[in-house]
Design goal:
alpha+beta, YmcC-like fold, 2 domains, 9-stranded antiparallel beta sheet, 2 helices
Length: 224
């Protein structure tokens, strides 16, 4: 599998924001720390050369300002692994096919990609990503001839891709990429319904008890 082919459906390079803090470089916000990683599950339909990934893991190995070194591990459909090292520069627009973008963008904001020019954030929404509620930014990229369309979803706080869907009309080929593991945020524990109702019951009991005490004290004052 050729590296550039796999990059075409944004699944091989990325940046991450560290410790909830963004660092600005000429209006490009980056929050990065060495050791952050994210993993993806990939589902494909059709048969397209150089697009044969089924799983991938991306890890930040070094950070120098806006320049990030990334280690990529890809599991191919023939059950072999591909190992690659890549360099991104968010200040110059070398974004790894828009797999990662500057952090803290909002709807209507535009970022630059050296391959295709300006890309616009078209909308945002709250969504569960790898077990936690995150603010997700959405944008769509279409190739010049219109035969390849990719809709991206990036985590706003980190700028990292959490989901992408690519459609190649000329080849009847699609690929869906979904993040399923990361150390950049912690999954939110599921709510235990028994504990929830017990908590609500306890609160109601306390409120009723306080109301009874207040009424009783009022009656005592009236009698005296």
């Amino acid at each position: 599998m050729h590296k550039s082919g796999f990059f075409a459906i944004p699944l091989t390079v990325f940046i991450v924001a560290a410790l909830f803090t963004a660092v600005a470089f000429a209006d490009v916000y980056i929050g990065v720390k060495k050791g952050d990683w994210i993993e993806y599950q990939v589902a494909i339909t059709g048969n397209l050369e150089n697009h044969d990934a089924q799983w991938a893991r991306e890890e930040v190995t070094d950070v120098q300002g806006p320049v990030l070194n990334i280690n990529s591990t890809t599991l191919l459909t023939n059950d072999t692994y591909l190992y690659e090292n890549s360099t991104l520069n968010l200040q110059t627009g070398h974004l790894g096919d828009d797999f990662c973008i500057p952090a803290n963008l909002s709807t209507g904001d535009v970022f630059y990609d050296v391959r295709i020019g300006n890309v616009t954030i078209t909308s945002s929404q709250q969504k569960t990503c790898v077990g936690a509620q995150r603010t997700v930014l959405i944008g769509t990229v279409v190739t010049t001839n219109g035969t390849e369309t990719t809709t991206f979803e990036w985590d706003k706080q980190t700028g990292i891709l959490v989901q992408a869907f690519s459609n190649y009309t000329d080849y009847n080929f699609t690929m869906a990429t979904v993040a399923n593991g990361t150390n950049m945020w912690q999954p939110q524990p599921p709510v235990d319904s028994t504990q929830f109702y017990a908590l609500i019951t306890g609160i109601v009991i306390v409120i009723v008890a306080v109301a009874v005490i207040l009424v009783w004290r009022k009656k005592v004052k009236v009698k005296s």
